[in-house]
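Ex. 9. Protein: TonB-dependent receptor.
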Amino acid sequence: MKTLRRLLLPLALFCFSASYAQNVIKGDVRNGGTKESLYAVSVSIKGSSQGTYTDNRGRFQLNTNAKLPITLIISSIGFSTKEVVVSTASQPLAIELQQATGLGQEVVVSASRTTQRKLASPVTIEQLSSKEIANAPQLNYMDMMQGLKGVDVTVSSLGFTSVTTRGFNTSGNTNFTQIVDGMDNQAPGLNFPLGSAIGLTQLDVDNIELLSGASSALYGSRGLNGTMVMTGKDPFKYQGLSVLITQGVNHISSKNSNDPVKPSPYYDWTIRYAKKINDKLAFKINAQYTKAKDWVATDTTNKNGIGTKYTDPNYMGVNDYGSATSADINPFLEYALSQNPALDPLISPMLEKPNYVARTGYPEYGYLDNNASLLKANAEIRYKISNKLEAIASGTYGTGRVVYTNDTRYQLKDFKVGQYRLELKSANWFVRSYTTQENSGKTLVAGPTAQLINEAWKTSYDGAAGGWYPEYTEALLNGLANGMSSVDANLAARSYADQGRPMQGTTYFNHLKDSISSTPIPEGGTLFLDRSKLYNTEAQYNFSKLIKFVNVIAGVNWRHYSLNSKNTLFPDMGKPINVNEYSAYIQLSKKILHDKLSLNASFRDDKNSLFPTPKVTSRFSAVYEVAKDNFIRFSYQNAYSFPSNIQALQNTLNGYNSYSSGGSGYLLNDIYHFNQYVPYTAASVKAYQESSVSDSLKRFYTNELKPQSVNAFELGYATLIGKRVLLDVLGYFSTWKNFIGYADVANTPGTNDPAAFKDRSTYISYNIAFNGAEMVNTYGWAASMSVDLTHNYLFKVNYYADYMVNKNNSQINNFNTPHFHVNMDFSNSGFGKNQQWSYGVSMRYKPGYFYAVNGGLAKGNVPSSTVLDAQLSYKLIKAHSGIRIGGTNITNKYYSTGTANPAIGAVYYVTYAYNIF
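Predicted structure tokens for TonB-dependent receptor:
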């Protein structure tokens, strides 16, 4: 009997375990029309949290302990959801999904930090899916931003695009927040988003959501002009190897383009690989490399008047670097008169007014290296601790050469930025920590570097040895004495003084440029040494399962900036400057009136260690479903922005006795001594120099910089008509307070004697950040329509308008936005045999508008532009590949997005894609 029990016990255990054996369900999912495999399709067990996704060949494997039969739910965007009953796991399943319209079915998360239909969002939100990005004619997703409703961009170069909504467009917009996989994508020192420099690669974008207008209540300081939330692809969902290779050409000659660059190749190579090791572990790696000849800024507009470089001795072109050195030659004329009284009939009339002359500048082409390149790489590993708890570790690194526009043009050479994250997330909560590490590399500052190049080969003035200005004055007088016209005499004098001037590209020029740009600013050069860092930890909990009568989400955030520029960007002599931000937020939401009315309230409290008072902001919204798929929304948002680190603390020598400056009390009083030596507006100083009347000096009153804020109201309506037409209309009104702008001022440290302004060496100029005293109001409206025309045809059009009133003319407001935009898209995602062909065409129109560059570099009118992008694609279904030919700005009519920025021509390209279409 004992022996029998020993034999039966293992058998019983085997039978017991067999009754709970895991079922392995396999299958593949295909497009019911084209029979091609569908990847990243959700396969889940009905009534359970268990599920998986199809791989890049449409195959899936689901391991479950659930007792058969079970029902599988098969779903994917753009296809009808299907339920499949599984009674046995012995045979693989062959499942086909039928295409269906996706209009009005899109879901978003960022509008309220919870999943909801985009149609029922409480605020205006735009969205791009991975499928839209894969089929777009544009070269990258940042270029696609220009076609979204309410969005405006500034393109500084091929690799640097800044985004904004509802006005106040500028390069490096510190009032727009860009979040990538939960991480703020800002540069730690400069505080503006880094665009695509360390963002997601082209192949790793799952979706992009863009909130228009104020969004501080949910996403914190600097969300006044909107927030873009980018989500990378989950390696559990998107598996396999994907490759995207684009070869193109740009700088195709065009009449009146002023493009000095010959036709050049454009390269963009992207690779992504993701692998699900098992049901618990998955990883992905990404890399993208872009290389091309960059667009070149060639604006020759004279900032000092209406003349040209041939007619105005004081010519200073917008993109002419080095000509910011300007001096009144009257002291040299007076010296010449003292040496030769016979020149009195010639010189005395000239002394009746100032005679300003600028040094000869260098154009951008041949001065800044226009070999643009960007390399970014990303790796991520995910581990599912349980079905509801996941751990994530990721690292992203970017480096390259791009050009950025601010108070001058900056060539970011060999910059390096790293962003590293650890995260633990559940269905109801997450804890996330990340850091951003910045290295400015060998950044070349165009304006000041060119000024120092001029001083290096020949000083402007040397009492003992002469200099450029004495030589110019001598030659000018000789020319005038010999009967030359003033124009010809100026040209001859400039030519004489410029003898020995090194030209771009020569060994001597490059030696001076490299020597100056590699010497730190405090040591007499122009090199930034920015090694600033950002550390952030945040946590959020959704209390919805604990609190039944109202949905509650709450979170906390801590952020630390370590500003380390070696006294080249900030006054961080000796040690880094530490800045801390603390915040907490809560969101309450509830549906009433039979779930027809959704109410939402959000509150956020923030504290920045540079400012004494915390800032409380709020958002209130209501969405009412007046009929099926018809929603009216109203929202009020109070948003704010603590001054960025640059706006508060910048202390950068920007030319001869000239500073780009923040507006903190520490700088204004302790370093610049505005409390002792009166600052005057730059315009009044110039007027005084021309008139010698001290009453023309106008004092500039400024206090320590304060946070700026905006109160924004929006009313909108969205509807889906017959599942084929999606409409969205809105209007908004905003009031800005303590608006942060920039102004040019000057003072004379050591004396308040106005006469000191007569000598350029005795006064200092500043371009400072300050709060405007007036309220600034903006308003606008927008409308968009998407129409599913059946047979995979889709038409989209949007129109939006933005206006600013009661502009404070004493500051550069940087509204920088046309009165309206019109965007249209027409596409077919599949036609012909097996729907192997597809195409897309997009058009963007902007009328001309006024644009002022942040920091006072330039201002002027940007001409109107009409831009056409188009592509035609063909799928190689059996090879899981595709070929695309296309072009951006295919008419090759050059256009610009802002004063001092380059004109952008066409890029014509051919693309090979593997495992994407």
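Check your answer against this statement. The first helix runs from residue 2 to 19.
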